[in-house]
């Protein structure tokens, strides 16, 4: 049995009926979005299927949980972030965004334990912000690395020259060489009689 099959067998199956009721097949009971929210917080893996069509609707149910939590005043998603997220719909980078957000949340979750420890120490007299600042810098560096996937020949938004390489950077040197070749091709194309 492969790991994907084993994973799917460990998931709890929730069925959503036409009357919008959610049924937990593991406990043979109806549940609410609040129950599913608590299951997520507890780390319980589940999948939600439409009871009639059999379609996997986990994504839309999880999104619905987020909307419900936001409506309760648990505003984790800043307006600027929401606007940026909406702007990616239909953008050619939208296929990269889900993976990047997963990586970012994974990194944040990894740092979460350290952050809690630093805050606990803060009550003992230590000031946690240098540690938090270091984590923010690590996350920013990860973001910069991820952005190089989107703009492998330089990020025009940063105003950097595509192909400007640091000494000893083979990838940067390759970018410079590609830039030079591109300039040569453009110069040839501008010659009279071409």
Plain-language structure description:
With 194 residues, this protein is of the alpha+beta class. Among the domains are: 9-76, no CATH class; 158-187. The chain is built from seven helices and four strands; from the N terminus they run αβββαβααααα. It has a four-stranded mixed beta sheet with strand order 3-2-1-4. β2 (22-24) and β3 form a beta hairpin. The longest helix has 26 residues, at 97-122. The chain is extended, with a radius of gyration of 24 Å.
Which helices and strands appear, and what pairs or packs with what?
Layout: H1 3-10, E1 12-16, E2 22-24, E3 29-31, H2 33-41, E4 46-50, H3 58-71, H4 79-87, H5 97-122, H6 129-150, H7 170-190
Parallel strand pairs: 1-4
Antiparallel strand pairs: 1-2, 2-3
Helix pairs in contact: 2-3, 5-6
Mean pLDDT rating: 76
Strand residue content: 5-15%
* Total strands: 4
Q: Low-confidence runs (pLDDT<50, min 5 residues)?
A: 155-165
Overall, the morphology is extended
Distance between the termini: 63 Å
**Count of helix runs:** 7
Secondary structural class: alpha+beta
Rg to the nearest angstrom? 24 Å
Q: How many strands, what sense, and barrel or not for the largest sheet?
A: 4 strands, mixed
Order of helices and strands: HEEEHEHHHHH
Helix content: 55-70%
Strand order of the largest sheet: 3-2-1-4
